[in-house]
Specification:
It is a single chain. The protein has helices at about 5-15, 20-70, 70-85, 190-235, 245-255, 275-280, 285-300, 325-340, 365-375, 390-410, 455-460, 465-485, 505-515, 535-550, 565-570, 590-605, 620-625, 645-650, and strands at about 90-95, 100-105, 115-125, 135-140, 160-175, 180-190, 265-270, 305-310, 315-320, 350-355, 385-390, 415-425, 430-440, 445-450, 490-495, 525-530, 550-560, 575-580, 610-615, 630-635, 640. It contains 18 helices and 21 strands. The strands form 3 sheets. An 8-stranded mixed barrel has the order 12-13-15-16-17-18-19-20, surrounded by 4 helices. By secondary structure, the protein is α/β, with parallel strands linked by helices. It has 3 domains: about 20-200; about 245-390, Reverse transcriptase/Diguanylate cyclase domain (Alpha-Beta Plaits); about 400-650, EAL domain (TIM Barrel, Alpha-Beta Barrel), CATH 3.20.20.450. Helix 13 (about 505-515) packs parallel to helix 14. It binds ligand C2E and calcium ion (2 copies). One calcium ion binds near residues 435, 494, 526 and 556.
């Protein structure tokens, strides 16, 4: 998978939900923390003014005490006045350093007995820059501090309804005497003050709820989006099942989990052969319906911890468990039987490629590619075949890629060299012709024989360019030798079957040869037997035209593969090349010999000349001479050789450049 695709897919998979969950938790925590802070701030701001008030009153008493402490009457008058006129001031008294009561106005006295105290708090007032100030203690006595919850009391001052009131003693030491001034006040919290806090909290809560709701809505949307994305990522449209991406991800997880179990896994590529043909005959819709049915059948066959997905067109990817390989093959036979039953009246063929997942496995996509590779080596026409992946297949694939990557450069770089294999007359054993055979002299790989690249070129069409190049080289060479006054022999070039898709092939060949002014009878064209199975009309037309132009045409590899006796009837060919296979192996009963003899007789009757290929022994030469074979091409006389060497053989000395 490409890096960019991988990124896109992981982006889809990683639309995480957790940021929303974290955000919700954070909003809740933040709301609680800020609420607490708000309450604390409001509480302290309400109470600090009241406490400050208490301190100021105590200071005033202290000042009066210092000024009028000796004058009991005057001090009493002042204190009573203060109690009367200061809002919420209830009691004033003075105690000595041992908390013994000295003066008391108003009636109540603080209870210094620690066991009965509810709690006491100390606070610093009139702080200087150095941190010095006056410390005052506040006493909340149990009996006296009845906390009057929401009373309908109307405060004296008429400020508003009282929400809460507390009676607090403020105790202020008087600097010089060691006495303490005690003043008791009602700390009153009014409704409107509480309302302010509640309103602030309310606004804040509404905001928090809005954020929370927004987050929850986003979270729900995200969860739904993720489900949709997963569907997009994993659902296969034609079958409605799982797709290849799902297979990759799920198989990876299964393989990881399997590391602790004792069974093995096999990765399979299952293909229904000739799907295009099926769709052409029954329609795409029917084709897709078939895929759906096959997918269902495959699903039925899956056991726990196994997996199947629709990979592409008529391909399915499967991950199956196995203990013994034989058991898996048995299961697959059964599976194939069931798959075929999906359509009673239509013949279905399947090919299965298997990759045995090793202990140290690669990524699933790569392994599936291996299974596919094995599957692709199965010929389409073969009925129900199973093939296991072999390392060799991968090497072959790599080789094909290398050849295809380099072939064009190799041609322009003249890495393809012409070799010539002489043909000898059977009777006189004299050089009478040659065949041009290509060799690839690779700068790194060295000598590469044609069977390693010709089949690849035939597949990808590059053979057209190569054959053209060979024809050019031969025509040029013949022209050069003619110019040098050499007695040249006809040289044959191979014309691949791929050429016979072009109507103007004969004209094209003619043009190339005429460019060098070479007599047409000095160039022979070899057509392989397989060419005779392609477009017959083009072949017959081309052959007829080439003959009119004066070229000799031979049927190469006669007898190899399919018999093409019929072609001999339809085509006016000049030469029959008996395939080397006739002369390979033992021929104890003489059947091969008989066929060769009859083939020669037949060719003679059709007015054709015979060339026997692949002749390696004296006996073979003698036997062919006896049967009236015209020419012999084989290692017995000469192997394919570079041009310089051929010049030695043909003309006795290398030609001058
Ligand atoms: P082919 O056209 O049948 O060529 C004859 C092959 O038989 C050559 O193999 C040749 O080296 C081999 N051969 C000849 N005498 C003997 C013998 O006595 N014993 C044995 N064992 N082999 C012998 P080569 O050169 O490897 O070529 C293989 C095939 O590659 C050719 O078969 C031909 O089909 C193809 N080919 C080679 N050059 C070209 C080309 O330029 N164009 C096309 N289209 N095909 C080519
Ligand atoms: Ca040939
Ligand atoms: Ca041949």
């Amino acid at each position: 998978m490409s890096v960019s695709k991988e990124k896109k897919i992981s982006k889809l998979k990683n639309h995480a939900i957790w940021p929303f969950v974290v955000a919700i938790v954070m909003v809740v925590v933040l709301f609680l923390a800020l609420s607490a802070a708000l309450i604390a701030i409001a509480y302290s701001s309400i109470f600090s003014s009241k406490v400050q008030n208490l301190y100021d009153t105590a200071q005033e008493v202290a000042q009066n005490y210092e000024e009028n402490g000796e004058d009991k009457e005057n001090f009493e008058k002042i204190c009573n006045n203060m109690i009367t006129y200061t809002p919420n001031l209830l009691n004033v008294c003075v105690v000595d350093q041992n908390n013994q009561l000295l003066w008391n106005y108003g009636g109540n006295t603080p209870d210094f007995n620690e066991t009965s105290q509810n709690f006491s708090v100390k606070a610093m007032f009139d702080k200087s820059a150095e941190g010095n100030g006056t410390e005052m203690e506040f006493l909340f006595n149990e009996e006296e501090n009845e906390v009057d919850l929401i009373q309908d009391l109307q405060d004296d001052s008429g400020i508003g309804k009282v929400f809460l009131s507390m009676k607090v003693w403020g105790i202020l030491p008087v600097m010089n005497g060691g006495e303490k001034i005690c003043v008791q006040q009602s700390l009153v919290v009014y409704h409107h003050e509480v309302l302010m806090i509640v309103a602030a909290l309310g606004i804040f809560a509404v905001l928090a709820i809005l954020v929370l709701v927004w987050n929850i809505v986003s979270l729900v949307r995200m969860v739904r989006l993720r489900k949709r994305e997963k569907d997009i990522l994993y659902i296969d449209v034609p079958t409605g099942g799982n797709n290849l991406q799902y297979f990759y991800d799920k198989a990876e997880a299964l393989l990881k989990a399997n590391q602790r179990t004792n069974f093995h896994y096999a990765l399979l590529s299952i293909r229904m052969e000739k799907y295009h043909n099926f769709c052409s005959c029954y329609g795409i819709k029917e084709g897709e319906e078939l895929m759906e049915n096959l997918y269902e059948k495959l699903q039925e066959h899956m056991q726990s911890k196994e997996l199947v997905s629709h990979a592409a067109k008529a391909d399915f990817a499967a991950l199956l468990k196995y203990g013994e390989k034989d058991n898996l093959f048995y299961r697959l036979d059964h599976l194939l039987e069931n798959l075929k039953k999906v359509r009673e009246n239509q013949k279905l063929n399947f090919g299965i490629g298997i990759y045995w997942v090793p202990e140290k496995y690669e990524d699933v996509a790569t392994m599936y590619n291996y299974a596919e590779l094995a599957q692709e080596t199965i010929p389409e026409d073969l009925e129900d075949h199973i093939k296991c992946f072999e390392e060799e297949m991968l090497n072959d694939q790599r080789w094909v890629r290398k050849v295809e990557d380099e072939m064009e450069h190799a041609l322009s770089n003249r890495e393809f060299k012409v070799y010539l294999q002489p043909k000898y007359s059977t009777r006189e054993e004299r050089l009478s012709g040659a065949e041009a055979l290509v060799r690839w002299i690779h700068p790194k790989e060295g000598f590469i024989p044609p069977n390693k690249f010709i089949p690849i070129f035939e597949q990808n069409g590059f053979i057209l360019q190569l054959d053209d190049y060979m024809l050019n080289e031969i025509a040029k060479m013949q022209a050069k030798w003619l110019y040098e006054g050499k007695k040249i022999v006809p040289i044959s070039v191979n014309v691949s079957r791929a050429h016979f898709t072009k109507d103007d092939l004969a004209e094209h060949i003619c043009k190339v040869v005429d460019k060098y002014n070479v007599p047409h009878d000095k160039i022979e064209l070899e057509l392989t037997e397989s060419a005779f199975f392609d477009d017959k009309d083009i072949l017959i037309n081309t052959v007829k035209k080439l003959k009119q132009y004066g070229f000799e045409i031979s049927m190469d590899d006669f007898g190899a593969g399919y018999s093409s006796l019929n072609s001999l009837k339809e085509l006016p060919l000049d030469v029959l090349k008996l395939d080397a296979e006739f002369f390979r192996g033992e021929d104890r009963e003489g059947r091969g010999d008989l066929i060769v003899g009859e083939a020669i007789t037949l060719a003679k009757k059709l007015d054709m000349r015979i060339v026997a290929e692949g002749i390696e022994t004296r006996e073979q030469v003698d036997s062919l001479a006896e049967k009236n074979c015209d020419l012999i091409q084989g290692y017995y006389f000469a192997k394919p050789m570079p041009i310089e060497e051929f010049e030695q053989v043909a003309f006795g000395a290398p030609a001058q450049a």
